[in-house]
Amino acid sequence: MQLSERKEKILAAIIEWYIATGEPVGSKTLLEFSRIPVSSATVRNEMAELSRLGFIEQPHTSAGRIPSQMGYRYYVDKLMNRYELPINEKRLIEARLSDAGGEPQQILEQAGQVLAELTNCAVVSTTPTDENAVIRRVELVPLGTHTAMMVMLSSSGILKSRVCRTDSELTLELIETFYNIVSKHFIGKSASEVSIALIQTLALSLGSKSLAISPLLVTLSDLAQLTEQTQLLLQGQSNLLHHNDYPNAYEIMEFLRRGEPLTNLFAGHKAENNTNVLIGKENFYRELQDSSLIYSHYSVGGKDSGALGLIGPTRIDYARLIPSLKYLTEIVGKIMSDTLED
Amino acid sequence: MQLSERKEKILAAIIEWYIATGEPVGSKTLLEFSRIPVSSATVRNEMAELSRLGFIEQPHTSAGRIPSQMGYRYYVDKLMNRYELPINEKRLIEARLSDAGGEPQQILEQAGQVLAELTNCAVVSTTPTDENAVIRRVELVPLGTHTAMMVMLSSSGILKSRVCRTDSELTLELIETFYNIVSKHFIGKSASEVSIALIQTLALSLGSKSLAISPLLVTLSDLAQLTEQTQLLLQGQSNLLHHNDYPNAYEIMEFLRRGEPLTNLFAGHKAENNTNVLIGKENFYRELQDSSLIYSHYSVGGKDSGALGLIGPTRIDYARLIPSLKYLTEIVGKIMSDTLED
DNA sequence: TTTAGCACTCTCATCATTAGAGTGCTAACT
DNA sequence: AGTTAGCACTCTAATGATGAGAGTGCTAAA
User: Which of A318, B92, B270, B333 could make an SS bond with B298 (beta carbons 3.0 to 4.6 A apart)?
Assistant: First the structure.
């Protein structure tokens, strides 16, 4: 649907004022701050029309208008001028991310922190995944006679570690055997190929050493699984309490904590490279249907790998947040790619 | 101050009822649920006395009584029968912690999760520190021609890693030089000895290689610092929103996020091995003065290393939470010690 | 020392009233 | 035909009055 230019101006004014103040906007108020050269009666007529079309609604008869979900949607799609992020904000983001220290998780944590401060929203992000990632390196660092720390590094830069206890003593020989198995059967394989079945077969084929080495192999498989799993990071949850017309903060926090649904959501829409905006009921999950979710995928080495998302009330400053998120996502991808390639 | 037995009974009844229901307790209500064989008038007299002494107070004239801070304190110190944790809850805790997977941070995360579920409080915990910890191992895992991941393991089991970029190519020779320096100057030293000054001196002494190796040494020093730093973990923050007579959840969440004050608090009281309870204004920090903080130190290898703490409203089920926290702390210490020694 | 009884206080919910904001409609104006 | 002034109408939110109910403290009797 296409609105007349004047209707668009009025709609944009309503939305921007409402986002800024949280108050429903009346016809007179609107004239005060927006430079629309008509009388309040005309505005009223236009507003009535916009109401009929479903772009704005009234909390009650004697109140002003507030944007409907459809209104926000129109605004985001057509009206909002996605302003270029000011250079100093860009610099700020770059500066804050430059000292994050290499590992994807650290970069994301830093990015999330910045984003939470910048936007006053809750921030979610997923660690990079890469179906084609393979196990790049496995290290076994002995800690004592019966314990060792196993470290696994994937080709996509994910590092995971776990402490492993063995029943029998961790001899040099045992460790060597382990390394042999690893380099023969696992290095260069994808994590998903490290199945329990394979582990068992291998263990059995070792005969007498089987018992001694199997705890190591089990840990290996645990690690492989961990490496493969997307992790969800949450930050700025307390920002949800800022917004006072937003009573269900608890519910949302619990939803975010569950993690899994969001991970799926991000994975599902991986194709679109653009920033996505889901407003209110557009969200599949009930818990988010009073909120807006804005998310954007970052790409490492040219492939979409993970996403950063913002969650806040539907009454949120889309025009400001979207460019910030977009730019930050870009930088995150760039930094991760830098580290990985060479 | 010592109260008469009957006063103690009444005080305990008021506190327990108030903790359970959140409602101020009147003299009649009290008779209904507690088996105190006197009339409401007598209870009223006793209550008046308890009010005068400062153990209970009235929100307003026509309301019942609620415990004062002093009342809670008396209850925690003398009345509350610290009941032994039921065996099945013990088992539950043990089961949930057994598969946490070795690293201190993972153990604490798991413990915090359990505690948050069990207590409905926000949970804070600090990673183990050990002034006598030394650098046990440093590994450099090449990722590309100019990047590597450096991993540092301390004798107290802390593992930290960072990605490091070098300006010149990471040759095998360079790596070997690095390992030589590390084993000669750093292994077995405490992290605090890795000063910038030392790094600079070392770099200079290398002459031509100086420039190539200094990024590695800088990363090493970063890692040493990280290893030494106590980290604060937060969990169950959303639990703060559960309690409805507790409006300042946001303030507390922000306070917790800042982290540092709590780290200091825990470090400051390290001497006492017992569980500590700080009620309301007993807390030094303003942000906590409407809350209660219960914390307990875990010890790894016989030395106090870190702490777990619970934060909730002053109206909290002390009698149940304290034993839970205590037991969990014990187990955490035990598991960490297991991993470390051998 | 305990208890019954009673006057007193204060909160909270309910209801009526009112000021104010904002609308939609009509009729006049450009 | 589009715009505007004016006005009746509607609904909210604030205010104040009223009354029921809960709980107390005190007194006098047991």
Answer: B333
